[in-house]
């Protein structure tokens, strides 16, 4: 019996070591540095970019969360062009700059800054936004792209409870949020969306049927367990990742892009009220 036990224990030890070595590259994502809301606000505040329409405020405002590759000038220009024109103020939240992340590839590879850790940025950005007199704090919306979509959906799911790498922020963390728009979000493990939506803000989600980066089927599976009463899902069968704007992926499709933009503006008008 002892002769059999020794090889088994050695095999188990080797398997455990192999598993730990396999997880080692993901240590920063698995074990993030803890940050409470105050620390998150202080870290994030210098990296918020705020744009307003020509009219006088306070404005209904859309907080925008970039994808895993970061916040490029092209991304900012693309998004703010149609939101400002419609009369909404726009606040861009640069989560990478706030953490000193210059190489985006570990984020996209899942080795750093998961969306469920980044959810604290949603609460922190909202807290800063509410203090801005140019912002109508009762009419706020969240807009996230890919990793940013994962981020805002997880913030909605946590709804101020303790999350991955941060303590509870309280049930008022999402006060003023009246709508959430997610473009091609990541919904697989370890996204928290599968646990349910804690906050009741209506959600508009756009998915591409030929997305080669985020699997839209994972989102569909996650949504099966959620209450769909306040969820609008739009699928574009032939659309790829970043179908809605020009990018380095060269996947822009004018038809779906224009339709999604029209739907997004209608959603904002319905839930935030007229911008003007």
From TrEMBL:
Does the record's keyword annotation contain Hydrolase? yes
Pfam families the record matches: DLH
In the UniProt record, the signal sequence range is none
Q: Which residues form the Dienelactone hydrolase domain?
A: 51-270
InterPro entries (alphabetical): AB_hydrolase_fold, Dienelactn_hydro, FrsA_esterase
Q: Name one GO molecular function term.
A: carboxylic ester hydrolase activity
Keyword Transit peptide tagged: no
By its UniProt entry, which SUPFAM superfamilies does this protein fall under? alpha/beta-Hydrolases
Report the superkingdom from the record: Bacteria
Query: What keywords were assigned to this record?
Result: Hydrolase
Q: Which PANTHER family match?
A: DIENELACTONE HYDROLASE DOMAIN-CONTAINING PROTEIN-RELATED (PTHR22946), POLYKETIDE TRANSFERASE AF380 (PTHR22946:SF9)
Q: What is this protein called?
A: Dienelactone hydrolase domain-containing protein
Name its species.
Metapseudomonas resinovorans NBRC 106553
């Amino acid at each position: 019996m002892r002769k059999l036990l020794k090889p088994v224990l050695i095999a188990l030890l080797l398997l455990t070591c192999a598993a730990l070595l396999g997880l080692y590259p993901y240590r920063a994502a698995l074990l993030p540095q803890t940050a409470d809301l105050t620390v998150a606000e202080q870290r994030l505040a210098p990296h918020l970019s705020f744009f307003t329409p020509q009219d006088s405020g306070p404005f209904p405002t859309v907080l925008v969360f970039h994808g895993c590759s970061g916040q490029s000038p092209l991304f900012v220009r693309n998004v703010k062009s149609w939101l400002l024109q419609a009369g909404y103020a726009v606040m861009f939240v640069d989560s990478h700059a706030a953490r000193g992340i210059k190489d985006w590839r570990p984020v996209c590879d899942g080795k750093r800054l998961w969306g469920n850790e980044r959810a604290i940025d949603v609460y922190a950005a909202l807290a800063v936004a509410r203090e801005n007199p140019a912002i109508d704090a009762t009419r706020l919306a969240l807009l996230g792209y890919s990793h940013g979509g994962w981020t805002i959906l997880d913030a909605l799911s946590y709804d101020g409870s303790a999350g991955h790498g941060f303590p509870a922020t309280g049930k008022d963390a999402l006060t003023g949020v009246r709508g959430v728009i997610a473009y091609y979000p990541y919904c697989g493990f370890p996204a928290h969306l599968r646990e349910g939506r804690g906050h009741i803000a209506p959600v508009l989600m756009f998915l591409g049927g030929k997305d080669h980066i985020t699997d839209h089927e994972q989102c569909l599976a996650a949504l099966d367990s959620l209450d769909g009463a306040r969820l609008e899902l739009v699928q574009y069968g032939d659309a790829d990742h970043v179908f809605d704007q020009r990018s380095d992926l060269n996947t822009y499709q004018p038809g779906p892009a224009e339709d999604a933009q029209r739907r997004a503006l209608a959603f904002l008008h319905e839930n935030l009220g007229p911008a003007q």
